[in-house]
Design goal:
With about 400 residues, this protein is an alpha+beta fold. The protein contains 13 helices and 20 strands. Pathway: One-carbon metabolism; formaldehyde assimilation via serine pathway; Carbohydrate metabolism; tricarboxylic acid cycle; succinate from succinyl-CoA (ligase route): step 1/1.
Length: about 400
């Protein structure tokens, strides 16, 4: 789960991390009051969406010369005007995709005198199961671009959870960033506080880009992006309360409410599979036979008829789906449960596209019998390759 910049900074303030003062604005008429509560002479107006690259992004139907989603203003009135221009519009960045994201929140923040821009992030290193620090002197840029062009300017190291964070780690970051004097002590404190925030709030990612050295020689987190482990939200109610459902794909949101693992993709064949590995293999073989998957959907090992019904409804709600492939290997999951769920869903939402079903495993004969006697126009498949070939062919014929 991701949160907005202003929410991340509020958490950082609670841990004593240096950030600029700011106000969030949800309605245009609140903008002038919010800006007047901050000291000038510069006010930064930032669109709040769950995507990076806001400053380099553009609004749909933008006028010539219009700025991106981060704008510098030099008066309360100008800041309020920029808020009015951005609220409710669609911002497109390199991370949002061509559809962009609607700006429903604006963050107005005090400006800062910048002497240097740096990069600092904490991530989960899946290989070592440790928290990793990533730092670079090339702040204010996309870290992917830095990695591609000047990888030697990125320093990465992990923290052993058995020993935890120490002053050594902070000094290592300070050395990598070329900090000197009192900035080294500030960096040690900053690293310790960010690490504690990361661990205590079950974060997956915390990115500060840029981390700046101000013109007064102080460290400050000028931007912040945070993501959290969705599996740990049951013990983080205050984090869950920060969730902005308007930033999420409606289908993915619906899936999460039924404990389904769903990710929307750009293809035309909807997939319903049990098991993440089998789902990945199903998507791969669809591509192998010349088509593209419309989603990743793992119904899990213990799905009920109700969950299968909801999964099918989510797939069919996607207008770009031109065919559906159900690929079930019944281990814990029973094939008859899948069959009953599919029938219930079709009766509720109808079936307007080709449907290929491949069942194998527990109660497979019963599952096939239920489907065969249902009267549904189902294309049966014997194995995964046969299923993929049949759905690709059916979609091409349907188109």
């Amino acid at each position: 789960m991701n949160i907005h910049e202003y929410q991340a900074k509020q958490l950082m303030r609670e841990y004593g991390v240096p950030v600029s003062d700011g106000r969030v604005v949800l309605k245009a008429e609140e903008a002038k009051t919010a800006a007047s509560e901050l000291d000038g002479p510069v006010w930064v107006v930032k669109a709040q969406i769950h995507a990076g690259g806001r400053g380099k992004g553009h609004f749909k139907e933008a006028s010539a010369g219009e700025k991106g989603g981060v704008r510098l203003t030099r008066s309360v009135e100008e800041a309020a005007d920029e808020v009015q221009r951005m609220l409710g519009r669609t911002l497109v960045t390199h991370q949002s995709g061509p559809a962009g994201r609607t700006v429903n929140r604006i963050y107005i923040e005090e400006g800062a005198g910048i002497a240097r821009e740096l990069y600092l992030a904490l991530l989960i290193d899946r290989k070592t199961s440790h928290i990793a620090f990533v730092c670079s002197t090339e702040g204010g840029m996309d870290i992917e671009e830095v990695a591609a062009k000047t990888p030697d300017r990125i320093v990465t190291f992990t923290v052993d959870p058995a020993t935890g964070i120490s002053g050594f780690h902070g000094r290592r970051v300070a050395f990598a960033l070329g900090l000197e004097g009192r900035q080294v002590r500030q960096c040690v404190e900053l690293v310790g506080r960010l690490y504690r925030l990361f661990v205590e709030k079950d974060a997956e990612m915390l990115e500060v880009n840029p981390l700046i050295v101000t013109d007064k020689g102080e460290l400050r987190c000028l931007d912040a992006k945070m993501g959290f482990d969705s599996n740990a939200l049951y013990r983080q109610p205050e984090i869950l309360a920060l969730r902005d459902e308007t930033e999420e794909d409606p289908k993915e949101l619906a899936a999460s409410k039924f404990d389904l693992n769903y990710i929307a993709l750009d293809g035309e064949i909807g997939c319903m599979v049990n098991g993440a590995g089998l789902a990945m293999a199903t998507m791969d073989i669809i591509k192998l036979f010349g088509a593209e998957p419309a989603n990743f959907l793992d119904v899990g090992g213990g799905a009920t008829t109700e969950k299968v019904t909801e999964a099918f409804k989510i797939i069919t709600s996607d207008p770009q789906v031109k065919g559906i492939l159900i690929n079930i290997f019944g281990g814990i999951m029973r094939c008859d449960v899948i069959a009953e769920g599919v029938i219930a869903a079709v009766k509720e939402v109808g079936l307007k596209v080709p449907l290929v079903v491949r069942l194998e495993g527990t109660n497979v004969e019963l599952g096939k019998k239920i489907l065969n006697e249902s009267g549904l126009d189902v294309i049966a498949a014997d194995d995964l390759a046969d299923a993929a070939q049949k759905i690709v062919a059916a979609v091409k014929e349907y188109a």
